[in-house]
Design brief:
With 178 residues, this protein is of the alpha+beta class. Helices cover 23% and strands 25% of the residues. It has six helices and twelve strands. A five-stranded mixed beta sheet has the order 2-9-6-7-4. The two termini are 19 Å apart.
Length: 178
């Protein structure tokens, strides 16, 4: 069993320590990312409006905040008004985040999990897990573990800024236990 498979299996069932042990004979199936999560995006509130930014306490995640796999804080924060008057949805802790438009995609596909509520800018996608099928940690680990394959399979070509084809990303299959 590869290290990647072992990591995915570690998070395959719910986070309950009482859950059954994972065995090699258990069956798996592939399910598209869009069937395992609610995929959303974000925006940038007008920087020229200080009411959207000054004194803000809501995390606003952009590619520059991906300095590790667990997002606990962001460089910028927005106000409630900034979130309300833009298309910036507030995502709950446990939401997986992925950079889908940035020069960094030339060599890596950053994926993190939000440990606090956050909004995101237009260069990211947020994946809220369907907890009837998969838990947040598993979804995050699957996206992170398969990030290089996702980057290669979903990369948009012929653009000036590196980006991921969202329609292809939505259909990308992830393994889950039956």
């Amino acid at each position: 069993m590869s290290e990647q498979d072992a990591t995915l299996e570690e998070f395959a069932d719910d986070s309950n320590p009482e859950s059954e042990e994972i065995r090699d004979d258990q069956e798996w199936k592939e399910v598209s990312i869009e069937d395992l999560s609610k995929i959303g995006g974000g925006s940038t509130p007008k920087k020229s409006n200080p009411d959207y930014w000054d004194g803000g306490e809501i995390l606003w995640t952009s590619p520059k905040d991906f300095d590790g796999p667990r997002l606990q804080s962001t460089e910028d924060k927005i106000t409630e008004l900034g979130a309300e008057e833009s298309t910036s949805k507030i995502y709950p802790p446990g939401t997986a985040l992925m950079v889908v438009r940035s020069g960094v995609l030339r060599h890596t596909l950053p994926v993190a999990i939000a440990e606090q509520e956050t909004t995101v800018n237009q260069d990211l996608k947020a994946f809220e897990p369907d907890t009837n099928q998969v838990n947040a940690e598993y979804l995050f680990q699957a996206l992170r573990g398969l990030s290089e394959d996702i980057r290669g399979s979903c990369k948009k070509t012929g653009t000036t800024v590196e980006s991921i084809q969202t329609n292809v990303l939505r259909q990308y299959p992830l393994p889950i236990r039956l």
